[in-house]
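Subject line: Sequence and fold of a protein, written as structure tokens
Enclosed: The protein record, placed directly beneath this head.
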Amino acid sequence: MKISGMIMILMVSVAAGAEPPLAEFLSLEDLLSAVDTRSPELKSVRAAASAAEGRVGPAGTWPNPSVGFSREKIPGGEKMSHLKGEQEIPFPGKLTQDARMTAHEAQVLQEQSRQKALAIRSRARVLYFDLRRAEEVTRRISDQIAIVDSLMASLRGRVAGGGGGGMGGGPPGADLFALEAERGRMSNMLLMEKQARLTVRFELNALLDQSPEAPLSARGVPVLKDPPGTVEFLIEQARAQGPLFRQAQHEESHARAQLRRSRLSYAPDLAVMYDRSKDDDGMTGYEAGVSASVPLWWSRPQGERREARAHMESAQSSARAMENEVLRAVTTERGEVATRLALARSFETVLLPAARSSLELSRRRFESGSFPFVQFLEALRTLSAAEIDYQDSLVQYAVHWGMLEEWVGVPLDTLPH
């Protein structure tokens, strides 16, 4: 009974800490907002950045003083009590540079958490488009299978009735076998798309910190937007707000503070002490003093100095390399977004309407017996390939939009278009 009660308490506590499931149908905006607040990975890096900020203040604080009490018995038999206090005082400037280094380390973690947030946002966007792709392709393939089924039913009637040639002028039996083969191919495609939809749903639920089996579906048609501003404008934004660029800057500032700190390694630290003594007869005395550390072993400060110089050189080179990478990536990704957007719009306005009209015309002429069967199948496959290519172009648009956001450092929707 006790064991079952403990199990019930554990289940209740786990359920209380779990995130409630989201609505089944999500828009892209709803998904991005939910991921930002629910992702366990994002919560972890943000907590780590917050913990690093808490170390900044203590890094610039003096060491704790030591206070002690002792009883002493001297050889003559007299007893004395001692109350002692001692405070170490680092050489002025050492703790200041320690605090600056710790502050830049915290800023690096803060920028890493921002980068992680943008990466997770980008991943969620791509998964949303993947989910919508699987749903749309599944629906289109199902519609095309229904067309093939209707033609197969008509051909079976002609074969059973001993009718003449097939709908395209050929033997009805041959046309029927060809349609059955085409239907089997499309059924396999449908099975693969359904499995892809399940896989995407599992990944999205993992990002949202909910059960893998929780139902999810894409709601609405995402708006395709042009990339904001010019390349120069986006590069300016990346230099000001890009987490990777800012992280490199904080690494350089950290190295600069470390170099200043290494110069102070040769300076002595101080300490003050006070000892108040009292014997059993009530006689009191005291001892006060000041001491300084002697940097006798110069190998330590010299090693710290060499390390700081190497770190400074590395950080400066890294910052320069990151600036070059930002210039390259922003220019490349903006071009990719514009290209994928143009492809998607071309599919919407030209290719898909033409492929659908071609299939409808081919179907009517095939049913009337005045159109070759092979050309009908070609029109069917052309439309299927165009639908898939269109959805793939949308996914690639989402991929490069997210990568551009990661380099610029802010959601592109917040920038003026």
